[in-house]
Amino acid sequence: MPELPEMETYREFLNHNILHKTITNVEINREKSINTGVQTFIEAVKGANITFVKRRAKHLIFELSSGKFLLLHLMLGGLMFLGTTKNSPDRTKQIILSFGELQLNFIGLRLGYLHLLSQVELDEKLSDLGPEPFELQRDVFLDRLERKKGALKPLLVDQSFIAGIGNCYSDEICFQARLHPLRKASDLKEEERNNLYDSIKPVLARAVQFGGYMDFPMYEGDEKTGRYNENTYVYEREGEKCPRCGGTIERVEHSYKSFYCPSCQMKV
Predict the structure, then answer these.
(1) Residue 268 lies in a domain
(2) How confident is the model over 103-121, as pLDDT tens digits?
(3) How many Å apart are CA 188 and CA 179, to the nearest integer?
(4) Residue (of 117, 128, 124) closest to 68 by Cα position
(5) pLDDT digits (tens, 9 = 90+) for 205-231
(6) Which of 158, 191, 210, 241 is most buried, by CB atoms within 10 Å?
(7) Domain boundary among 91, 125, 159
(8) Are residues 157 and 92 in the same domain?
(9) CATH number at residue 94
């Protein structure tokens, strides 16, 4: 499932390529991917233009010139491709937004969605999300962490605790902080809590720099999207050597699968 770095990569690209272009056509091939009737959705979106693309947690928010918003959550298996009919991937597209010859294809939205919302509806939909990692101040993080008792992995992927982190980057953050992913938050010493905070932003920023781990190109000739796959520390690297201490990376199953180095992320 796309996490903050993947959606941030999409956001940056889309803001450079589709802003202020008129949406000339809307094609809906899966009604369950939207939250209104097909005709209602088309009438509300066609003829408008996207004035800005924002990200909130794992969502993208398309601001429309009409004052409405499109809220995207790709969920598991969802992705986007911007191109034309000539280079469009041979995949089923649940939704297509056309800007003349240019098309934004939404693919793999079996669980994902693109919802048409008002400002009030958008605020309500996102109201349960925790703070953004890049905006989170140390004192706020430590205060929120102080009230938690469970394991770090489930805590970091809890969107009400901190927004935008999922399976991949929770493991990478724990590795950077030298903390076992199943270590109890209530057992952390002050230095360890600070190390955890200090690991979040650098790991996510590095992942954004490498284009996240989504390995499907966003456009023809895309050589950035997905490069983090080649640069993970521990995620999906079971059996490989730890890049820090040379130990062997292991996988542990709890409520989530987690990858870690038992040599330098000891569970104490």
Answers:
(1) no
(2) 999 999 989 999 999 999 9
(3) 9
(4) 117
(5) 999 999 999 889 999 999 899 999 999
(6) 210
(7) 125
(8) no
(9) 3.20.190.10
